Amino acid sequence: MSDCIFCKIINGEIPSKKVYETEKVYAFHDISPEAPVHVLIVPKEHIASHNELTAGNVGIMMDIHLAANEIARLMGIADSGYRLINNCGTDVGQTVFHLHYHLVGGKSMGSKIL
Ligand code: 5GP
Ligand code: ZN
């Protein structure tokens, strides 16, 4: 997608601080972190949001979750805990319409969702 900011990050047109990469997944530090660890995990394939996922994306989704495990270990928060968040749609504040998961942790956040 030519005008997608995360596609541009994945293909190197826009710089990012890479944390982890596989054949299907790219992960990088959020530009505006909301926790000591705030990493964005994105599929390299452009998928606009959670709404656009299909059964054909099962491999991508497994890779995203396995990447989250690996990144949590790399960041040293696998044992202390972390949250994996997807915002889908404008009511919950999705601003970039390329599917992404926020991996946040590194501080005590309690269990409240909202
Ligand atoms: P959303 O609100 O769509 O769930 O999250 C989008 C996230 O992307 C935000 O946390 C925002 O800080 C991050 N972001 C937006 N533009 C850039 C960018 O150019 N580089 C990086 N690293 N993060 C970005
Ligand atoms: Zn994209």
TrEMBL record:
<dbReference type="GO" id="GO:0016787">
    <property type="term" value="F:hydrolase activity"/>
</dbReference>
<feature type="active site" description="Tele-AMP-histidine intermediate">
    <location>
        <position position="100"/>
    </location>
</feature>
<dbReference type="InterPro" id="IPR036265">
    <property type="entry name" value="HIT-like_sf"/>
</dbReference>
<protein>
    <submittedName>
        <fullName>HIT-like protein</fullName>
        <ecNumber>3.-.-.-</ecNumber>
    </submittedName>
</protein>
<feature type="short sequence motif" description="Histidine triad motif">
    <location>
        <begin position="98"/>
        <end position="102"/>
    </location>
</feature>
<dbReference type="Pfam" id="PF01230">
    <property type="entry name" value="HIT"/>
</dbReference>
<dbReference type="InterPro" id="IPR001310">
    <property type="entry name" value="Histidine_triad_HIT"/>
</dbReference>
<keyword id="KW-0378">Hydrolase</keyword>
<feature type="domain" description="HIT">
    <location>
        <begin position="5"/>
        <end position="114"/>
    </location>
</feature>
<dbReference type="InterPro" id="IPR011146">
    <property type="entry name" value="HIT-like"/>
</dbReference>
